[in-house]
Automatic annotation (TrEMBL):
Source species of the chain: Vallitalea maricola
Official protein name in the record: Uncharacterized protein
Tree of life domain: Bacteria
Length: 85
């Protein structure tokens, strides 16, 4: 019974989260046009997606990669060692 109520709660929370607009469309298009106009001048990259990924969000990308690596190391460590933890 408890698992079912938790599952229902998570499903309702998911649908509640996707029902709201997080960024209004007007603000999103302003940011889009800024990146399209200024990405080559500010970063030197011809591709806009590459300039956003590697130049504007470089620290975010590095820390996400580091977090993924630490998670994988933890999973490997706990799966190879036997015993009660």
């Amino acid at each position: 019974m408890r698992r079912k109520s938790i599952a229902i709660y998570l499903i309702l929370l998911f649908f509640l989260c996707i029902s709201f607009d997080i960024i209004p469309i007007d603000n999103a298009t302003d940011v889009l046009h800024y990146y399209i106009k200024n990405s080559y001048r500010e970063t030197g990259s011809i591709n806009v997606v590459t300039s956003i990924y590697l130049n504007y969000r470089v620290f975010d990308t590095i820390f996400e990669t580091l977090l993924l690596l630490i998670s994988i190391i933890g999973i490997i460590y706990f799966s190879r060692h036997e015993g009660d933890y």
